[in-house]
Structures are given as C-alpha cells and as structure tokens.
Specification:
The chain has 284 residues and is mainly α. It is built from 13 helices and no strands.
Length: 284
C-alpha cells in the first residue's frame, strides 16, 4: 500500500450516507425490541453456565415459534393444493430443525459439575413442559391427550392444544391431498382429526408404494413424501442429540420435571411420525 492509498483518518460511516441519528427514527434495536429480548435472561444463581442454559432454551423457543408458523402455513398450502409453496415451507422447517440441532453442540460444552451448580434453582421446570414443543409434536401427528396435563394450570395453553387436536395433522393433510389425486385411502385416516399417534396402516403403505414405484406420474406426492422424510430425519436427530446431551450432563438422574430423564427420552426415539414413508423403502 502506497502512502496515497493509506487511510487518512478514522472511517466515518456518514461519508457513505449511513444514518447515525435515531432520535426520531426506528433503529435496529427498536424494530427487534432488543431491550425486551436482552433483558429477559434472569439467572437464579451465581453459576456462570446458567446464562448459557437460559439462552439456549430461549432461542430454541424462538425457532420453535417460527417452526409452528411454517408448519401451519404448509398445512394450509397443501389443503389448497398449492404444493410448490408447501415444498418451500417444509424445506424451511427442516432448516429450522438443523438450527435446533446445532444448539445442542453449544449446550454440550456444559459439564455435569457446571450444571449441578444451578440445577436446584430450576425447581420442577423442564423442557418437557414446553407448550410450543408439544404443539409441534401434535401438528406432526405425535398426539397424546395425556401430554395436555402439564399445562392444566394454564387454560389458554390447554385451549391451544385442544384446538390443535381438532385439526388434521400435517400427515393427514398430505394423505387427504393424495385422495384428491385419485389414490385410494380410508376416509377416517385422511379426513378425521385424531387425538392419538398415527399407527402404521397397510393401505397407506400401498399408496406410497404406487407413488414411489412411478414418481413421474405422482410427482407432487413423491416430492412432498421426500420432504416429510427429510423433516422426520432432522427430528430424529434432534431427539438423539437431546438424549445424548442429557446423558452427558446428568447421566441417568430423573429430569427436573419428574420424567425418567434419559429413559423417557430414549422411548421418544422409537416414535415414528410417518411410518409408511419409512416402510415403503423395504417394499420397492
């Protein structure tokens, strides 16, 4: 760099037109309400890692809020036969799950000794009680009315969960689309909202077999089927990362919310959201 090329002074953003006065204008912090967000971390102990624990869960809840928004929009799009829009939305949901998975990598830097310094301060609070996570599970078809009980003290939360049980799950909306495409499926599987986990059905497996045996004739269904597999793939990784992180940090102690901790989470690994989409691979 010659003397002529060297900076002559400190950079002034105003020289390029950057706005630097916000006394009467909306700023970045104003738009994002950063004062509210950044003042929402209130550790209950002096343990250094409690802030990590709080932020990890708060950011996960923000991602889950977006995930619910996209899942609901995807259901509407599929119900309206707007499949290209639905494909974009479902792809975004999978990317959100990727972000949620990455969050475990940060939390795993916390050791058992770190966690024990503030675990008692959590009381009975637990991710098991996350309303948004339960709504996501219900939207994806893992439905169980017993899971409403932890929210009984919050009537608005109970109402939201019951409202979700009164809607068709994402998978049911896809199966209803398949029926509109002329494929044979029982009405009760595709049309009637269920309050139970979807169980594998041979007629649904046969339907997917037709789709996967001739993708070009059923391209929209073939594409949405793969998007669902992609989503469940990420969801399974999230569950696996969860159980691995818990075992690494607390071993086989009971969870703060009273669950069996690792034993409960390992049972959740066995849950299949879209079983026929996995079984059809064996039949091809």
């Amino acid at each position: 760099m010659t003397d002529l090329e060297k900076p002559t002074g400190a950079y002034n953003p105003e020289s390029e037109g950057a706005q630097t006065s916000f006394s009467d204008k909306m700023s970045y912090g104003d738009y994002l309400q950063l004062d509210r967000i950044l003042s929402s971390q209130a550790p209950l102990s002096a343990a250094p890692d409690e802030l990590l624990f709080i932020i990890q869960h708060q950011t996960s809840e923000l991602w889950m809020k977006l995930m619910l928004h996209e899942l609901n929009s995807a259901r509407v799009a599929i119900n309206d036969d707007h499949l290209p829009e639905a494909m974009k939305l479902l792809a975004r949901v999978s990317r959100i799950m990727e972000q949620l998975n990455s969050a475990w990598d940060v939390l795993r830097t916390m050791t058992p000794s770190d966690y024990t310094q503030f675990r008692d301060a959590l009381g009975m609070s637990s991710g098991f009680q996350s309303l948004q996570y339960r709504l996501i599970e219900f939207a994806l078809g893992n439905r169980n009315e017993a899971m409403i009980k932890p929210h009984a003290h919050e009537p608005d939360s109970v109402a939201l969960l019951n409202e979700e049980l009164g809607r068709r799950s994402l998978y049911q909306v896809v199966l209803a689309f398949a029926k509109r495409q002329g494929l044979d499926l029982p009405d009760e599987i595709a049309e009637q909202p269920s309050s139970e986990l979807h169980a594998e059905n041979p007629e649904v497996t046969e339907m997917w077999h037709k789709v996967y045996s001739d993708p070009s004739s059923h391209w929209a269904l073939y594409e949405v089927g793969e998007k669902l597999v992609d989503l469940e793939d990420y969801f399974r990784r999230w569950r696996f990362n969860h159980v691995t992180t818990v075992e690494r940090v607390i071993g086989f102690k009971r969870g703060t919310g009273g669950t069996g901790g690792v034993s409960y989470l390992k049972r959740m690994l066995e849950v299949e959201l879209f079983p026929e989409l996995w079984r059809v691979r064996t039949t091809l």
